[in-house]
């Protein structure tokens, strides 16, 4: 069985500060890993994904995540956050084929203070 | 190409009524997934369907919940005799075979 653990339910940071949202997973098979973002009262948007290849993946708005197989982690980082990054962030995993159910973590609420 | 569409966006039902949630996948997508997000929680997988077939319903409650994806028309998630605990956001996602899932905006169900 697969599972995802997001260690922090809330992360408050000041604007322009760096941030790391932690994610650990467990799986007995090779996985695909995702970070989704949910802005208030909206649906989910895919932020970035790891399928194979380079372990460092980046999004278009400055976020990056690194797949670490030995530590079974996929932490999300951004060197300098903006007010507009305020949202809920979900780490997720799916099985060997992406055409299968996605298992989500419980989410981390990122709040940015001016 | 329009994204995944869900309607209604908001649905209010009284206890004991039926709720019908609709999901129109993206054009060319033949796979549909339903997820439920309870307040203050992450999304939980409910069911995975292809046209006219249920592939995986391991996340569906055993009673009152059903889903279909007919040959023509949207996928329907049906909840009979709703209870307050069914209040949640229900998200649909679609994908082509063996590819990324795209999520709809969700239907927020409130049971009074």
Strand content of chain A: over 45%
Mean pLDDT of chain B: 93
SS elements, strand count of chain A: 12
Q: Summarize the amount of helix of chain B as a percent range.
A: under 10%
Task: Kindly name the structural category of chain B.
Answer: mainly beta
Shape verdict of chain B: globular
Summarize this entry quickly.
The complex is a heterodimer of chains A (114) and B (112). Chain A has 114 residues and is mainly β. Chain A is built from no helices and 12 strands.
Description of the molecule:
The complex is a heterodimer of chains A (114) and B (112). Chain A has 114 residues and is mainly beta. In chain A, 0% of the residues lie in helices and 52% in strands. In chain A, strands 2, 5, 6, 10, 11 and 12 form a 6-stranded mixed sheet that branches. With 112 residues, chain B is mostly beta strands. Chain B has strands at 5-7, 10-13, 19-24, 31-37, 43-50, 53-56, 65-68, 75-79, 88-95, 102-103, 107-111. The A-B interface holds A 36, 42-46, 49, 90, 97-107 and B 31, 33, 35, 41-45, 48, 56, 58-59, 91, 93, 95, 97-106.
